[in-house]
Amino acid sequence: MQDNIENTQGGVPQSAGMQSLVRMLRILFQGLRVLIILIFVYLIFSGMFRVDDQNEAMLFRFGKLQRRVIDPEKGETPVLTSGRWYWAWPSPIDWVKEIPAQKSVTVSTDMVFEPWVNPNMAGQAPENNFLRPGMDGYMLTGDTNILHSRWDVNYRVVNSEKYYLEFFDDSDSDRVKKDKNASRGTEAIIRNLLSNAVIMEVGTWKVEDLLRTTRTLKDGKIENIKDKVQERLTKLLDEVGLGVQVQSVNLVDIKPPMAVQSAFHKVNEAAETGRAEMLKARSYAESVELAAQGQAYRIADEARSYKTRLVESVKADSAYFTTVLEGWQKNPDTMLTTLYMDALKDMLKRTPNKFVVHKTDENATQEMRLHIGLNPEEKKAPAPAPVAQ
Known about the structure:
Blueprint: H1 2-7, E1 8-9, E2 12-13, H2 16-46, E3 48-50, E4 56-61, E5 64-65, E6 68-71, E7 75-77, E8 85-87, E9 94-99, E10 105-108, E11 139-140, E12 146-157, H3 160-165, H4 174-178, H5 185-202, H6 207-212, E13 214-216, E14 222-224, H7 225-240, E15 244-255, H8 261-330, H9 332-350, H10 376-380
Antiparallel strand pairs: 1-2, 3-8, 4-5, 4-9, 6-7, 10-12, 11-12, 12-15, 13-14
Helix pairs in contact: 5-7, 8-9
């Protein structure tokens, strides 16, 4: 066609204007061809996307969920995992929804159970601030007391298909984004389930135990309020089948109403004082018991030691008398002399002063001067030598 236009049309030679038009059309055709190629390349590369490491994604085509064979062992699945590239048609043909599946998400109870404050009563005494049932958040304990608290839960999505498809979620809509107070989607469901778990569990606790966050059962087992709320929340989530796993439930804050905070503090201080005194008395009782046990052990050990010494002494005396009897039977005179010398030796050991008098002739005279009853200082001085006459 272009060759015909360029040469002749109906056997009539073309003018210069026609030739310019033909060149212009040729340029336009070339540009259109390049544009089509660029658009095709753009469609190919703009449709490439990669899922974040901590997310999973699902692909919708004209609103219908698409299933693909990503892992031959698992078969077709609607979940697009991280670590590989995917391709999708541009919007509005295809739409990719990313879900935080591999990272922890925190949901708080917000103002559901938080301490209430009436703005009209600001600056007034706490007793003038009244609780407005149905408007102010609160929770009832097992002994009919009122407390305010704040909770949050950390969870992780383990089933993206259930998490997104089985529950209506319009959190990405423009209306929800504009309305900051809107509460929609799966996070709102988890928040409500957390509130239900808190209400059901707190209703079985006493206020004193809640303020301590622990309680002791009759069998001595200690329970924590956070663990019990987490058990209830896990059970509720399993019943609903939301496809999430609870990692932890945290008690951010807990306190009584403002109008009775002072009374609660006094009662709590008295309870703490009572527990401290009981602990002190228990420690004193344990110390006295340990001391008595130690003294009993010591007395028993001393008695056993005395018994051992006495038995050994009797055995030694028996062996000594047996030996003496055998020696007496063999040679009475020798044994008598030996016993006499032993007795004399023992007597001399007990005598503090000893005097030796030499025997002289019968006609000779001797003079002895003895100091009887000497003082300790005088005993140290040497005794005067005897004077003979």
